[in-house]
């Protein structure tokens, strides 16, 4: 008994396209091959949108299901490409935003550095002014103390001048009294 030699998956697919084109090859032979084609999982028909069965493949080709499958795949591909384009645009926008943020961060860092430098300069100036103010306050206190000493000295001098004037007045009065007494004595002798 001779065993039938079944066509490979590629041969079966070629036969399917020949049938679709109007070939008069017996369909019974193809139908007999379908069971062995469906039982060969090592080399499935990649173009079959449903399964590896030959009759389903022929049906998909004849009814337009395969074309619909291809159209759906094209639509998926276009959608995927559109989504990929949108994602690339979004990535570019995010990269541009990241660049702007980096620039802003750099500007803020530079401004902060400048502000820190100005703050340090201001603090140094404040320190110098504080030292000058402290020195001036010390000088003012010393000047006020000297002024009080001068005032005390002036008051003492005024008091001394007043006492001296009193003594002078007393001496003048005593001289006048003595002059009058001497005049009386002279007049009495005459």
From TrEMBL:
Region described as Disordered: spans on this chain: 105-125
Bias-annotated ranges (Low complexity): 110-123
Signal peptide limits: 1-39
Record keywords, A-Z: Signal
Name used for this protein in its record: Lipoprotein
Keyword Signal: yes
């Amino acid at each position: 008994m001779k065993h039938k030699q079944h066509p490979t998956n590629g041969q079966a697919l070629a036969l399917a396209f020949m049938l679709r084109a109007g070939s008069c090859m017996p369909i019974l032979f193809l139908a007999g091959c379908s069971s062995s084609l469906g039982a060969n999982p090592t080399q499935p028909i990649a173009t079959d949108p449903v399964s590896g069965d030959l009759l389903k493949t022929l049906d998909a080709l004849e009814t337009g299901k395969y074309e619909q499958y291809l159209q759906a795949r094209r639509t998926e591909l276009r959608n995927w490409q559109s989504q990929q384009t949108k994602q690339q645009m979004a990535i570019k926008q995010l990269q541009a935003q990241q660049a702007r943020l980096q620039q802003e961060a750099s500007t803020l860092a530079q401004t902060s550095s400048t502000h820190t430098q100005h703050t340090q300069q201001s603090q140094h100036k404040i320190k110098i002014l504080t030292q000058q103010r402290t020195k001036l306050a010390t000088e003012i206190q010393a000047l006020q103390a000297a002024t009080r000493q001068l005032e005390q000295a002036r008051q003492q001098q005024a008091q001394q001048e007043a006492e001296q004037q009193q003594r002078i007045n007393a001496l003048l009065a005593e001289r006048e009294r003595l002059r009058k007494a001497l005049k009386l004595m002279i007049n009495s002798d005459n």
